[in-house]
Amino acid sequence: MLAHFITRVHHVAIICSDYAASKTFYTDIIGCRVVAEHYQPGRESYKLDLSLPDGTQIELFHFASAPARPSYPEAQGLRHLALSVTDIEAARNALLALGVSCESIRVDPYTQHRFCFFADPDGLPLELYEMAAR
Fold first, then answer.
1. N or C, which terminus of the chain has less Cβ within 10 Å?
2. What is the DSSP letter of 65?
């Protein structure tokens, strides 16, 4: 079984439509640290390696001819990226103060943890998921 060898999620890859807007969002709004940034002129593509505080990475790509991602109605494939937070109200308020629209905080009926959704500049669903004991 592969799970015996897995230690954690290393990275999530996202393809964006507007490189500058997404770079600003993931660095200035989410607070990711830039690890590396590359431009491939022959492909007209960017790759930005970002790091979350726990070391998990986000690879942000931009390709000039990438098609739009179907999000609504939900399509098959990766559904959303969830970010663990210790204080969901403070995290949500920080996003709202930065002009990011957020859904209301809800409670997962199975885990009893609180969560809410927001979106990146391309409408990719992102989730705040509170792991702190209340």
1. N
2. T
